[in-house]
Amino acid sequence: MKLESIKKQKRLLLEVQILLAVVLILAIAMPLLLPAFRLKILGRILSLAIVALGIDLIWGYTGLLSLGHGIFFALGGYAFAMYLNLQLPQGQLPEFFSLYGVSELPWFWQPFYSFPFTMVAIILIPGIVAGLLGYLIFRNRIRGVYFSILTQAALLVFFNFFNGQQKLINGTNGLKTDTQAIFGVLASSASAQIAFYEFTILFVVLTYLLCRWLTSGRFGRLLVSIRDDEVRTRFSGYDPTGFKVLVFAISGAIAGISGALYTVQTGIITPKAMDVAFSIEMVIWVAVGGRATLVGAIIGTLLVRWAQTLLSERFPEVWLFFQGALFLIVVTVLPDGILGGLNQLRSLLGFRPRLVTYPSIEEAPEVQKEREEIG
């Protein structure tokens, strides 16, 4: 057991060293090597990697396939955009209010004058909404495909609601951020965008470490047991409802952070962020990289989104066919994603698969060790 513990510590140390090296390259080298518009694209992609980590937490580890994470992503984006739109001289209202005859700021806009409140709201509002939605679903023991359908139905409800609120949040047109200022600096300026890029890298690392911590101990093993056999987990004395609500709320809060960072690097937030196709695409990023790996969620997001950017530039008329082919290859040839395929390749070459986590109870090192001892 002591030898096994030393091996785990060495693997963790190696992982931290690799992570720090990647972070230094992204944070220091990329702003020097990439043009400003490419750096902005990379910042957007990295912000999307944050929401992919949250989806891997609930889908890869807990077995909850959410097709409605665009709700929480958009809530975080709107919270930050509302704060930026209120950075005006005393007594002035955001420009769009005058178009609809609104002369007094709506009550729910008032708290967003405060920067500390906005930072808390970006995390808490999506987390609370996710927790409430999860509680309403999980208390009735709804799971599997029915859970996925309900999250997508909730997404459509939020999309139609936000789309129709012209007087309150500018409806279809959304809220612009590129023409607003933050701490006296224009949000679309080069200096501000580099700062947002650096903050995005920081939050990718922090989110990864949070998810790694949640999934590496007893709590993580419990999530995997809920995913693989929820009934047995319930009969073991645990109530899966509370754990699923908690992890779903955490994933929603993570999506809110992702939405806020994506919004300020895109320049606008609209109800389009709650489009069904966009929420499904989030799941695809995780599937391409490899479920229940965390690292795979980041790799999948970078690969798919960067490929979309390059292919749409070079082959604007047929790039969607390339994207479809990529997804088909992953589903048919690499059902466990890129990292799962690498593990299979290691097995074929005679090496022991290097599992960042284990995608099923059967592959858990503890279970295999017990079998060897009993056998």
Structural write-up:
The protein is an all-alpha fold. It contains 16 helices and 4 strands. It has helices spanning 2-33, 36-60, 70-85, 95-99, 115-138, 145-163, 166-169, 190-216, 218-228, 230-235, 240-266, 276-289, 295-314, 319-332, 337-348, 365-374, and strands at residues 175-176, 181-182, 185-186, 268-269. A two-stranded antiparallel sheet has the order 1-4. Strands 2-3 form a two-stranded antiparallel sheet. Helix 2 packs antiparallel against helix 11, helix 2 (36-60) crosses helix 13 (295-314) and helix 13 (295-314) packs antiparallel against helix 14. The chain is globular and about 75 Å long. It starts with a helix and ends with a helix. The model has no long low-confidence stretch (mean pLDDT 87).
Q: Quick recap of the structure?
A:
One of its GO terms (molecular function) is branched-chain amino acid transmembrane transporter activity. The chain is mainly α.
Q: Supply the number of helical segments.
A: 16
- The sequence of SSEs as H and E is HHHHHHHEEEHHHHEHHHHH
Q: What count of structural domains?
A: 2
Q: State the major sheet.
A: 2 strands, antiparallel
Instruction: Record the strand order, biggest sheet.
Output: 1-4
